[in-house]
Amino acid sequence: MFNNAPFNKNFFTVWLTTYDNGNLAQDLNKGIEDIQYNCLNLPRLIKFKDQSTITYTYAADGTKLRVEHKIGHSTTRTTYCSNVIYEDGTAKCLLTEEGYVSLDGREYHYYLKDHQGNNRVLVNKNGGVEEINHYYPFGGVFASEENVQPYKYNGKELDTKKGLNWYDYGARRYDAALGRWHKIDPMTEKYYSVSPYAYCSSNPVNAIDYQGKLVIFINGMHWGDGKSNRYWDKNGGGFATAVMKHLNDYNAMYIDGSIGGVGQLPYNLDANLRRTFGRNQGFLDAPVILRKIKNSKGELIETIKIITHSMGAAYAKGYIEALKQFLIDNNLPLSLIEFEADFAPFQPTEQEAVKGIKTFQFTNMNDDIANNKWLKSPFGIIQGVEKVTIGIEENKKHTIKDFYNMVFKLPEGKYEVIDGKIVPIN
């Protein structure tokens, strides 16, 4: 046993793993004789020596929709419909930010997590302990009492069927027994001295591998789901997920740009006030953000991208002003802030892009909120933006999901090598 995974005793006489274009193609230690990938470089089919298979189905943006396990004479189909999970056509659980609801018994279950986001204890609504997990440093489960659910290390889903023992991080799969990914890190050129398959620079005790740069989402008006992924994905048609997949950035922060939502009306209708609140919060968050874009050695290896909606655009201008000043005060390059993208900016004529920061505006002509002079938000262009994209479809208006098809117009990160270091191209 190694990291709670069985190991082939004949490993000295065979090649256990082979790779194709950087992707794991075979793992004979687990009896895997072939792994096939789709056009998104995600595993499509895993075939075992005994003809058992695991088949994956994805949406166009790479979101996992279904996993089919054919093991021996048994077939199990798990379907993922947003945050609802079905098994063989029956709704089993509803995932929440803090746990899940078992739909067969309609009971709430909550995770108690450690500093790395690992699910250590599962409790019911009365506080009764239902599961306890203990981990090796790289994520292998070395002890688990009452193994009732699959979300373990870093809160990621662990597939143990047929001895696979892979964690699903979305863009890549992770083998905790080896402390290695199944394919190359897309940011590998930013740290040449580290294996492109290594998990968090082989320092899992002090670091978490987020697999990407930092994306900050700043929401607009809301009814209680601000400062959360729900605003962007549940109510926004998977917008945040689409953005992160397009940018290959999976480290996200969520900020309330409406400074409280409907409960703060009409107070938050003032664009300058939102900008001031954003600036104040930016000064508080800047040191935290800087830590998020460093690796385990303290090196700055990530960049920041800011995505806003509606009221969040004005808030973001102040927030970025504070981040910019923090970078200047610490002799850091402004290129660490890669860009700001404003979707349906509310009151655009009262805003000005932060100098030195690329800003992009996305607006729908038929937006009856951001282009409404009666709401003191006439149609207009934010002063100083680098590029404006205007949608003319009649049914596309103000909600964030109305901009889903514009996600692919966001610029992807591009880098160049300077003195042996990878830096963003301005």
Protein described:
InterPro entries: Rhs_assc_core, T6SS_VgrG/RHS. This is RHS repeat-associated core domain-containing protein. It comes from Bacteroides intestinalis. With 426 residues, the protein is mainly beta. The protein has 2 domains: 17-202, no CATH class; 214-424, 3-Layer(aba) Sandwich (Rossmann fold), CATH 3.40.50. 12% of the residues lie in helices and 32% in strands. The protein has helices at residues 229-232, 239-247, 271-292, 312-329, and strands spanning 17-20, 23-27, 32-37, 43-48, 53-58, 64-71, 74-81, 84-87, 90-96, 99-102, 107-113, 119-124, 129-135, 141-145, 157-159, 166-168, 173-175, 180-181, 214-219, 251-256, 304-309, 337-343, 359-364, 387-391, 415-418, 421-424. A 12-stranded antiparallel beta sheet has the order 3-4-5-6-7-8-9-10-11-12-13-14, with no helix packed on it. α4 links the parallel β21 (304-309) and β22. α3 (271-292) crosses α4. It is globular, with a radius of gyration of 23 Å.
The mean pLDDT is 86
Please report the distance between the alpha carbons of the first and last residues: 49 Å
> Major sheet: order of its strands?
3-4-5-6-7-8-9-10-11-12-13-14
> What is the number of independent domains?
2
Helix-strand string: EEEEEEEEEEEEEEEEEEEHHEHEHEEEEE
Protein name: RHS repeat-associated core domain-containing protein
